[in-house]
Amino acid sequence: MDEWKLAMALLLTLSALRTSSSYRYASDDLRIDCGSSLDQTKPQPETYLKWKTDENFIKTGQNKLLPTNHTPAQLNTLRFFPKGRKNCYSLPLFTQYYKFLFRAGFLYDNYDGLSKPPSFHLEIDGHFWANVMTSLSEEPVFHEFLYIIQEKQATVCLVRTNDDEVPFISSLEATAQLSDSYKFVDNKTALYLHSRINYGAKKNVEQTIGSLDECCNRIWKSKTMPNYLNIHSETVPDGYLFYENTPPWPVMAYAIQAHNVTESIYLTVDLSPKTAVKAYLVLYFMDPIRRFPPNQTSSVEIYVDSVKLAVKDVPTFGSYEDMYHVATLFPVWVGGSVANVTISPAEGSTMGPILNAMEVFSAVDVSEGGRFSDFSALLIVFLHLLFLCLNCCK
After folding, report:
1. Residue 194 burial class via C-beta count within 10 angstroms: exposed 0-12, middle 13-18, buried 19 and up
2. Taking burial as the number of CB atoms within 10 A of a residue's CB, which of 20, 88, 104, 166 is the most buried?
3. How far, in Å, CA of 394 to CA of 382, rounded?
Protein backbone atom coordinates (compact mmCIF):
# COMPACT_ATOMS: atom_id res chain seq x y z
CA MET A 1 0.00 0.00 0.00
CA ASP A 2 2.86 2.36 0.85
CA GLU A 3 4.39 1.65 -2.55
CA TRP A 4 1.18 2.79 -4.27
CA LYS A 5 1.06 5.97 -2.21
CA LEU A 6 4.64 6.70 -3.23
CA ALA A 7 3.82 5.99 -6.85
CA MET A 8 0.85 8.33 -6.86
CA ALA A 9 2.89 11.05 -5.15
CA LEU A 10 5.59 10.75 -7.81
CA LEU A 11 3.00 10.81 -10.58
CA LEU A 12 1.31 13.92 -9.20
CA THR A 13 4.67 15.64 -8.74
CA LEU A 14 5.66 14.86 -12.32
CA SER A 15 2.35 16.21 -13.60
CA ALA A 16 2.62 19.35 -11.47
CA LEU A 17 6.16 20.03 -12.67
CA ARG A 18 5.04 19.75 -16.27
CA THR A 19 1.99 21.97 -15.72
CA SER A 20 3.83 24.70 -13.84
CA SER A 21 6.69 24.72 -16.33
CA SER A 22 4.31 25.02 -19.28
CA TYR A 23 2.06 27.60 -17.67
CA ARG A 24 5.02 29.81 -16.86
CA TYR A 25 5.68 30.40 -20.54
CA ALA A 26 2.12 29.92 -21.85
CA SER A 27 0.99 32.36 -24.53
CA ASP A 28 -1.65 32.94 -27.17
CA ASP A 29 0.91 34.73 -29.37
CA LEU A 30 4.24 32.93 -29.15
CA ARG A 31 7.23 33.93 -31.31
CA ILE A 32 10.47 31.97 -30.95
CA ASP A 33 13.82 33.09 -32.36
CA CYS A 34 15.38 29.66 -32.74
CA GLY A 35 19.08 29.48 -31.92
CA SER A 36 19.25 32.92 -30.33
CA SER A 37 20.97 33.25 -26.96
CA LEU A 38 19.14 36.34 -25.67
CA ASP A 39 15.49 37.41 -25.55
CA GLN A 40 14.91 40.53 -27.63
CA THR A 41 13.93 42.82 -24.79
CA LYS A 42 13.58 45.65 -27.29
CA PRO A 43 11.03 45.09 -30.06
CA GLN A 44 12.46 44.56 -33.52
CA PRO A 45 12.56 47.71 -35.67
CA GLU A 46 11.01 45.84 -38.62
CA THR A 47 7.81 44.78 -36.84
CA TYR A 48 8.07 46.05 -33.25
CA LEU A 49 7.28 42.54 -32.03
CA LYS A 50 9.19 40.72 -29.31
CA TRP A 51 10.73 37.31 -29.85
CA LYS A 52 11.79 34.75 -27.24
CA THR A 53 14.79 32.43 -27.23
CA ASP A 54 14.00 28.75 -27.57
CA GLU A 55 15.82 27.47 -24.46
CA ASN A 56 12.56 27.00 -22.51
CA PHE A 57 10.85 25.11 -25.33
CA ILE A 58 13.44 22.50 -26.35
CA LYS A 59 16.46 20.85 -24.73
CA THR A 60 18.16 19.26 -27.74
CA GLY A 61 20.12 20.73 -30.64
CA GLN A 62 22.79 23.39 -30.97
CA ASN A 63 22.66 27.14 -31.62
CA LYS A 64 24.30 28.74 -34.64
CA LEU A 65 24.82 32.37 -35.68
CA LEU A 66 24.63 32.74 -39.45
CA PRO A 67 27.63 34.21 -41.31
CA THR A 68 25.62 37.07 -42.86
CA ASN A 69 22.97 39.45 -41.52
CA HIS A 70 19.36 39.10 -42.61
CA THR A 71 16.04 40.87 -42.24
CA PRO A 72 14.02 40.14 -40.20
CA ALA A 73 16.54 39.70 -37.39
CA GLN A 74 15.20 36.34 -36.16
CA LEU A 75 16.63 34.77 -39.33
CA ASN A 76 20.18 35.54 -38.20
CA THR A 77 20.30 32.44 -35.98
CA LEU A 78 19.14 28.85 -36.18
CA ARG A 79 19.09 25.68 -34.11
CA PHE A 80 20.33 22.48 -35.75
CA PHE A 81 19.91 18.89 -34.62
CA PRO A 82 22.87 16.60 -35.40
CA LYS A 83 21.58 13.84 -33.07
CA GLY A 84 18.37 11.87 -33.01
CA ARG A 85 15.73 11.13 -35.62
CA LYS A 86 13.10 13.44 -34.10
CA ASN A 87 13.62 16.65 -32.10
CA CYS A 88 10.58 18.46 -30.73
CA TYR A 89 9.55 21.87 -29.45
CA SER A 90 6.90 21.95 -26.72
CA LEU A 91 4.81 25.11 -27.10
CA PRO A 92 2.67 26.00 -24.05
CA LEU A 93 -0.49 27.77 -25.16
CA PHE A 94 -3.23 29.39 -23.10
CA THR A 95 -6.31 28.08 -24.83
CA GLN A 96 -7.30 24.47 -25.40
CA TYR A 97 -9.51 23.48 -28.38
CA TYR A 98 -8.68 26.77 -30.10
CA LYS A 99 -7.63 27.68 -33.62
CA PHE A 100 -3.95 28.62 -33.96
CA LEU A 101 -1.82 29.78 -36.87
CA PHE A 102 1.59 28.06 -36.73
CA ARG A 103 4.46 29.31 -38.89
CA ALA A 104 7.96 27.82 -39.11
CA GLY A 105 10.84 29.61 -40.88
CA PHE A 106 14.03 28.15 -42.36
CA LEU A 107 17.13 29.90 -43.76
CA TYR A 108 20.12 27.66 -44.47
CA ASP A 109 22.70 30.32 -45.51
CA ASN A 110 25.33 27.55 -45.76
CA TYR A 111 25.78 27.76 -41.97
CA ASP A 112 27.73 24.47 -41.91
CA GLY A 113 30.01 25.31 -44.86
CA LEU A 114 28.94 22.16 -46.72
CA SER A 115 26.77 23.80 -49.41
CA LYS A 116 24.29 20.95 -48.92
CA PRO A 117 20.90 22.34 -47.92
CA PRO A 118 18.98 19.56 -46.17
CA SER A 119 15.42 18.33 -46.51
CA PHE A 120 13.38 16.89 -43.65
CA HIS A 121 9.84 16.61 -42.34
CA LEU A 122 7.89 18.90 -40.05
CA GLU A 123 5.22 17.47 -37.73
CA ILE A 124 2.70 18.95 -35.30
CA ASP A 125 1.15 16.81 -32.56
CA GLY A 126 2.08 13.69 -34.49
CA HIS A 127 0.49 14.94 -37.72
CA PHE A 128 2.50 15.54 -40.90
CA TRP A 129 2.82 19.27 -41.53
CA ALA A 130 5.28 19.76 -44.39
CA ASN A 131 8.23 18.39 -46.30
CA VAL A 132 10.83 21.11 -45.73
CA MET A 133 13.19 21.56 -48.67
CA THR A 134 15.84 24.21 -48.02
CA SER A 135 18.16 25.77 -50.60
CA LEU A 136 21.24 27.95 -51.04
CA SER A 137 19.00 30.93 -51.78
CA GLU A 138 19.07 33.92 -49.44
CA GLU A 139 15.26 33.80 -49.37
CA PRO A 140 13.85 32.02 -46.31
CA VAL A 141 11.35 29.18 -46.56
CA PHE A 142 8.16 29.43 -44.48
CA HIS A 143 5.53 26.80 -43.77
CA GLU A 144 2.20 27.84 -42.26
CA PHE A 145 -0.46 25.60 -40.70
CA LEU A 146 -3.93 26.47 -39.33
CA TYR A 147 -4.91 23.94 -36.70
CA ILE A 148 -7.16 23.49 -33.64
CA ILE A 149 -5.01 22.45 -30.68
CA GLN A 150 -6.34 19.61 -28.52
CA GLU A 151 -4.41 20.45 -25.37
CA LYS A 152 -2.96 23.58 -23.81
CA GLN A 153 0.23 23.00 -25.73
CA ALA A 154 1.39 21.85 -29.13
CA THR A 155 4.41 19.73 -30.04
CA VAL A 156 6.29 20.70 -33.20
CA CYS A 157 8.91 18.18 -34.34
CA LEU A 158 11.68 18.22 -36.93
CA VAL A 159 12.10 14.71 -38.33
CA ARG A 160 15.27 13.51 -40.05
CA THR A 161 14.48 11.72 -43.29
CA ASN A 162 18.04 11.15 -44.58
CA ASP A 163 20.94 9.97 -42.43
CA ASP A 164 23.39 12.47 -43.91
CA GLU A 165 21.10 15.54 -43.66
CA VAL A 166 20.71 17.56 -40.44
CA PRO A 167 17.38 19.29 -39.71
CA PHE A 168 17.40 22.90 -38.50
CA ILE A 169 14.92 25.71 -37.81
CA SER A 170 15.21 29.52 -37.77
CA SER A 171 11.88 30.68 -36.31
CA LEU A 172 8.66 29.28 -34.89
CA GLU A 173 5.37 31.12 -34.23
CA ALA A 174 1.96 30.22 -32.78
CA THR A 175 -0.85 32.80 -32.82
CA ALA A 176 -4.45 32.31 -31.68
CA GLN A 177 -7.10 33.11 -34.29
CA LEU A 178 -10.60 34.45 -33.83
CA SER A 179 -13.02 31.61 -33.10
CA ASP A 180 -15.25 32.20 -36.14
CA SER A 181 -12.43 32.62 -38.67
CA TYR A 182 -11.92 30.01 -41.42
CA LYS A 183 -15.29 28.49 -40.63
CA PHE A 184 -14.76 25.00 -42.04
CA VAL A 185 -11.67 24.25 -39.95
CA ASP A 186 -12.58 21.75 -37.23
CA ASN A 187 -11.02 19.02 -35.07
CA LYS A 188 -10.67 16.80 -38.12
CA THR A 189 -9.46 19.37 -40.66
CA ALA A 190 -6.37 21.58 -40.63
CA LEU A 191 -5.14 23.90 -43.38
CA TYR A 192 -1.71 24.10 -44.99
CA LEU A 193 -1.09 27.50 -46.62
CA HIS A 194 0.10 27.69 -50.21
CA SER A 195 -0.43 31.41 -50.84
CA ARG A 196 -2.11 34.53 -49.43
CA ILE A 197 -2.11 37.30 -52.05
CA ASN A 198 -3.34 40.89 -51.96
CA TYR A 199 -4.00 41.70 -55.61
CA GLY A 200 -3.29 45.18 -56.95
CA ALA A 201 -1.12 46.11 -53.96
CA LYS A 202 2.57 47.06 -53.98
CA LYS A 203 3.33 46.48 -50.29
CA ASN A 204 2.92 43.43 -48.06
CA VAL A 205 0.60 43.68 -45.05
CA GLU A 206 1.57 41.95 -41.80
CA GLN A 207 1.17 42.34 -38.07
CA THR A 208 3.13 45.06 -36.23
CA ILE A 209 2.84 46.69 -32.83
CA GLY A 210 1.39 50.19 -33.09
CA SER A 211 -0.57 49.24 -36.20
CA LEU A 212 -3.92 47.48 -35.94
CA ASP A 213 -4.08 46.54 -39.61
CA GLU A 214 -3.50 42.78 -39.23
CA CYS A 215 -4.97 41.12 -36.16
CA CYS A 216 -3.84 37.54 -36.49
CA ASN A 217 -0.20 37.31 -37.66
CA ARG A 218 -1.06 36.60 -41.29
CA ILE A 219 1.24 37.89 -44.02
CA TRP A 220 -0.55 39.21 -47.12
CA LYS A 221 1.82 39.21 -50.10
CA SER A 222 1.31 42.03 -52.57
CA LYS A 223 0.97 41.37 -56.29
CA THR A 224 0.20 43.68 -59.19
CA MET A 225 -1.22 42.18 -62.39
CA PRO A 226 -0.25 43.90 -65.66
CA ASN A 227 -3.13 42.33 -67.61
CA TYR A 228 -5.77 43.93 -65.37
CA LEU A 229 -6.58 47.28 -63.81
CA ASN A 230 -4.74 47.63 -60.50
CA ILE A 231 -7.07 49.82 -58.46
CA HIS A 232 -7.11 51.26 -54.93
CA SER A 233 -9.06 53.69 -52.79
CA GLU A 234 -7.95 57.32 -52.51
CA THR A 235 -7.42 56.92 -48.78
CA VAL A 236 -6.49 53.69 -47.00
CA PRO A 237 -8.18 53.35 -43.59
CA ASP A 238 -6.29 51.85 -40.65
CA GLY A 239 -7.35 48.71 -38.83
CA TYR A 240 -9.25 45.67 -39.99
CA LEU A 241 -12.83 44.79 -40.83
CA PHE A 242 -14.91 42.99 -38.22
CA TYR A 243 -16.71 40.34 -40.24
CA GLU A 244 -15.64 37.05 -41.78
CA ASN A 245 -11.90 36.36 -41.35
CA THR A 246 -11.25 40.04 -40.35
CA PRO A 247 -9.17 41.11 -43.38
CA PRO A 248 -7.04 44.27 -42.94
CA TRP A 249 -8.31 47.52 -44.43
CA PRO A 250 -5.03 47.97 -46.38
CA VAL A 251 -5.78 44.64 -48.08
CA MET A 252 -9.37 45.46 -48.99
CA ALA A 253 -8.39 48.93 -50.22
CA TYR A 254 -6.56 47.34 -53.19
CA ALA A 255 -7.87 45.12 -55.97
CA ILE A 256 -7.57 44.04 -59.57
CA GLN A 257 -10.39 44.55 -62.07
CA ALA A 258 -11.06 43.34 -65.59
CA HIS A 259 -11.00 46.13 -68.17
CA ASN A 260 -14.69 45.86 -69.03
CA VAL A 261 -17.88 43.99 -68.17
CA THR A 262 -17.41 41.41 -70.91
CA GLU A 263 -14.03 40.18 -69.64
CA SER A 264 -13.02 37.77 -66.86
CA ILE A 265 -10.12 37.50 -64.41
CA TYR A 266 -8.01 34.36 -64.92
CA LEU A 267 -5.68 33.14 -62.15
CA THR A 268 -3.52 30.04 -61.81
CA VAL A 269 -3.31 28.54 -58.33
CA ASP A 270 -0.17 26.55 -57.52
CA LEU A 271 -0.68 23.76 -54.97
CA SER A 272 2.69 22.05 -55.51
CA PRO A 273 4.34 19.94 -54.36
CA LYS A 274 0.99 18.30 -53.60
CA THR A 275 -1.16 16.53 -56.17
CA ALA A 276 -4.76 15.32 -55.99
CA VAL A 277 -5.53 17.98 -53.40
CA LYS A 278 -8.66 18.82 -51.42
CA ALA A 279 -8.26 22.59 -51.63
CA TYR A 280 -9.70 25.33 -49.42
CA LEU A 281 -9.96 28.69 -51.23
CA VAL A 282 -10.95 32.01 -49.68
CA LEU A 283 -11.68 35.00 -51.97
CA TYR A 284 -12.33 38.56 -50.77
CA PHE A 285 -14.45 41.12 -52.64
CA MET A 286 -15.00 44.86 -52.20
CA ASP A 287 -14.91 47.68 -54.74
CA PRO A 288 -12.32 50.10 -53.29
CA ILE A 289 -13.35 53.02 -55.52
CA ARG A 290 -16.25 55.43 -55.07
CA ARG A 291 -18.02 55.22 -58.43
CA PHE A 292 -19.96 57.91 -60.27
CA PRO A 293 -22.74 57.46 -61.01
CA PRO A 294 -23.13 55.50 -57.75
CA ASN A 295 -25.78 53.08 -59.07
CA GLN A 296 -23.27 50.83 -60.84
CA THR A 297 -23.34 47.20 -59.72
CA SER A 298 -20.77 44.43 -59.64
CA SER A 299 -21.50 40.76 -59.23
CA VAL A 300 -19.18 37.85 -60.01
CA GLU A 301 -19.32 34.14 -60.75
CA ILE A 302 -16.42 32.03 -59.45
CA TYR A 303 -15.20 28.97 -61.36
CA VAL A 304 -12.46 26.48 -60.49
CA ASP A 305 -11.29 24.33 -63.40
CA SER A 306 -14.39 25.42 -65.34
CA VAL A 307 -16.81 24.34 -62.57
CA LYS A 308 -19.04 27.12 -61.24
CA LEU A 309 -18.81 27.14 -57.43
CA ALA A 310 -20.20 30.47 -56.21
CA VAL A 311 -21.83 33.78 -57.09
CA LYS A 312 -21.02 36.90 -55.05
CA ASP A 313 -22.03 40.54 -55.08
CA VAL A 314 -19.16 43.01 -54.76
CA PRO A 315 -20.07 45.72 -52.21
CA THR A 316 -19.10 49.30 -52.95
CA PHE A 317 -16.56 51.21 -50.89
CA GLY A 318 -18.12 52.89 -47.84
CA SER A 319 -21.16 50.61 -47.68
CA TYR A 320 -21.22 50.12 -43.92
CA GLU A 321 -24.15 47.69 -43.88
CA ASP A 322 -22.50 45.33 -46.34
CA MET A 323 -18.82 46.19 -46.34
CA TYR A 324 -17.25 43.22 -48.10
CA HIS A 325 -18.05 39.67 -49.15
CA VAL A 326 -16.05 36.47 -48.69
CA ALA A 327 -16.36 33.34 -50.81
CA THR A 328 -15.07 30.27 -48.96
CA LEU A 329 -14.83 27.32 -51.34
CA PHE A 330 -14.44 23.93 -49.65
CA PRO A 331 -13.93 21.19 -50.52
CA VAL A 332 -12.48 21.88 -53.96
CA TRP A 333 -11.05 18.73 -55.50
CA VAL A 334 -7.99 19.42 -57.66
CA GLY A 335 -6.64 16.56 -59.73
CA GLY A 336 -3.09 17.88 -60.12
CA SER A 337 -0.87 20.48 -58.50
CA VAL A 338 -2.42 23.43 -60.40
CA ALA A 339 -5.97 24.80 -60.43
CA ASN A 340 -7.40 27.46 -62.72
CA VAL A 341 -9.62 30.08 -61.07
CA THR A 342 -11.89 32.23 -63.24
CA ILE A 343 -13.88 35.22 -61.98
CA SER A 344 -16.50 36.28 -64.50
CA PRO A 345 -19.18 38.98 -64.50
CA ALA A 346 -22.55 37.66 -63.32
CA GLU A 347 -25.83 38.47 -65.03
CA GLY A 348 -26.88 42.06 -64.36
CA SER A 349 -23.41 43.30 -63.48
CA THR A 350 -22.52 46.66 -65.03
CA MET A 351 -18.80 46.56 -64.15
CA GLY A 352 -15.82 44.36 -64.85
CA PRO A 353 -15.20 41.71 -62.15
CA ILE A 354 -13.10 42.68 -59.12
CA LEU A 355 -10.90 40.67 -56.71
CA ASN A 356 -9.07 42.03 -53.66
CA ALA A 357 -7.35 38.99 -52.19
CA MET A 358 -7.23 35.21 -52.21
CA GLU A 359 -5.94 32.62 -49.75
CA VAL A 360 -5.11 29.14 -51.03
CA PHE A 361 -4.85 26.18 -48.65
CA SER A 362 -4.83 22.42 -48.93
CA ALA A 363 -6.91 20.58 -46.35
CA VAL A 364 -5.10 18.15 -44.04
CA ASP A 365 -6.90 15.31 -42.28
CA VAL A 366 -5.93 15.41 -38.59
CA SER A 367 -8.61 13.01 -37.36
CA GLU A 368 -6.32 9.97 -37.18
CA GLY A 369 -3.04 9.33 -35.41
CA GLY A 370 -3.73 11.88 -32.71
CA ARG A 371 -1.35 13.44 -30.31
CA PHE A 372 1.19 11.27 -28.53
CA SER A 373 3.37 13.64 -26.56
CA ASP A 374 6.80 13.12 -25.05
CA PHE A 375 5.13 13.43 -21.65
CA SER A 376 2.77 10.56 -22.51
CA ALA A 377 5.73 8.41 -23.47
CA LEU A 378 7.51 9.33 -20.23
CA LEU A 379 4.43 8.33 -18.23
CA ILE A 380 4.27 4.94 -19.92
CA VAL A 381 7.95 4.26 -19.15
CA PHE A 382 7.49 5.47 -15.59
CA LEU A 383 4.44 3.26 -14.96
CA HIS A 384 6.17 0.26 -16.52
CA LEU A 385 9.20 0.67 -14.25
CA LEU A 386 6.94 1.18 -11.27
CA PHE A 387 5.08 -2.04 -12.07
CA LEU A 388 8.38 -3.94 -12.17
CA CYS A 389 9.49 -2.40 -8.87
CA LEU A 390 6.24 -3.33 -7.14
CA ASN A 391 6.52 -6.91 -8.36
CA CYS A 392 10.07 -7.08 -7.05
CA CYS A 393 8.95 -5.86 -3.63
CA LYS A 394 6.38 -8.64 -3.18
Report:
1. buried
2. 104
3. 19
Judge contact between 359 and 219, C-beta under 8 A: no
CA distance linking residue 353 with residue 255, whole number of Å: 10
For residues 259 and 373, state if they share a domain.
no
Of 22-31, 65-74, 164-173, 193-202, minimum mean pLDDT range: 22-31
Rounded to a whole number of angstroms, the CA Rg of the chain reads: 24
Same domain? For 167 and 239 the reply is: no
Instruction: Kindly state the average pLDDT of the residues 213-230.
Output: 95
Residues contacting 358, CB < 8 A, separation 6+: 195, 196, 197, 199, 267, 269, 281, 282, 283, 284, 341
| Overall domain count for the chain | 2
Examine the domain organization and report whether 31 and 119 are in the same domain. Answer: yes
Of the candidates 33, 96, 88, the one whose C-alpha atom is nearest the C-alpha of residue 61 is 88
Q: Is the dihedral of CA 212, 57, 55, 87 positive or negative?
A: negative
pLDDT > 70: what percent of the chain?
82
Q: Which residue has the higher pLDDT, 73 or 339?
A: 339
Categorize the per-residue pLDDT at 94 as very low, low, confident or very high, splitting at 50, 70 and 90: confident
The answer to whether the CB of 382 falls within 8 A of the CB of 289 is: no
Of 226-230, 263-267, 292-296, 351-355, minimum mean pLDDT range = 292-296
- The mean pLDDT of 76-89, rounded to a whole number, is 98
CA dist 89 and 327 (Å) reads 35
Burial class (CB in 10 A: 0-12, 13-18, 19+), 291: middle
Number of Cβ within a 10 Å radius of residue 377? 10
Phi-psi sector, 20: left (phi>0), alpha (psi -120 to 50), beta: alpha
- The whole-model pTM stands at 0.86
Residues 256 and 300 both lie in one domain:
yes
Domain region containing 37: 2-185+368-388
> Residue 20: pLDDT above 90?
no
Cα separation, 229 vs 288, whole angstroms: 12
Check residue 12 and give its pLDDT: 44
Pairing verdict, β 189-199 and 221-223? parallel
